[in-house]
Amino acid sequence: MLPEVRSHVSAALAHQLEHQLALASRLEASHLDVKGVAGIAVVAAAHSDGYAATGHLLGLLAALPAPTKAGERFWSDLWRSSGTAYLLPGNIKALVLRSLAGEGTPLARQILSAVDEMTPPQRVAAGEVIGQVIGELWLRDLELTAWRVLHADRRSDDPAGRKAFLDAWTSV
């Protein structure tokens, strides 16, 4: 399940293309040569982590029972066992919908808050509700993927931030 690509989500990529490759925002494809297309591919690949991580986060949630009458018992058991209401469908619905629109950071933060709230025994109990063997791995994957979404969001830094990073590493 991949988030929908919308123009506001690709703004950071467009900015990088303009900055890194000196491409005009209204450049027509007929004005690109092979080197220009390759440059676009490189910059786009660098920005794909957040999109892929958000898609994976949504895929993990899609693997759980649907938040319908039929899934009520699962969600109730998950709430009781985990000790947190942060993962309940009513509390993440808007964030899931935003993620489907390409904005995964708020959902990732909510998931990390939920996982942070759980004690080790609650994590084990929640894992058992999710699936006896795979549940704990699912929770770990959910947590790591949420971190990947946040990391990818921070990676699209401004030129000054990138220069400071390069200066720090070249001075070592």
SSE map:
Elements: H1 11-21, H2 34-62, H3 72-82, H4 89-100, H5 105-117, H6 120-130, H7 134-155, H8 159-170
Which bin fits the share of residues in helices?
over 70%
**Portion in beta strands:** under 5%
Oligomer: single chain
Distance between the termini: 42 Å
| Helix-strand makeup class | mainly alpha
Main β sheet profile: none
Q: What low-confidence regions span 5 or more consecutive residues with pLDDT below 50?
A: none
The H-and-E topology, N to C, reads as HHHHHHHH
- Could you tell me the mean pLDDT? 84
Number of helices: 8
Outline the structure in words.
It is a single chain. It contains 8 helices and no strands. It is mainly alpha-helical. It is elongated and about 60 Å long.
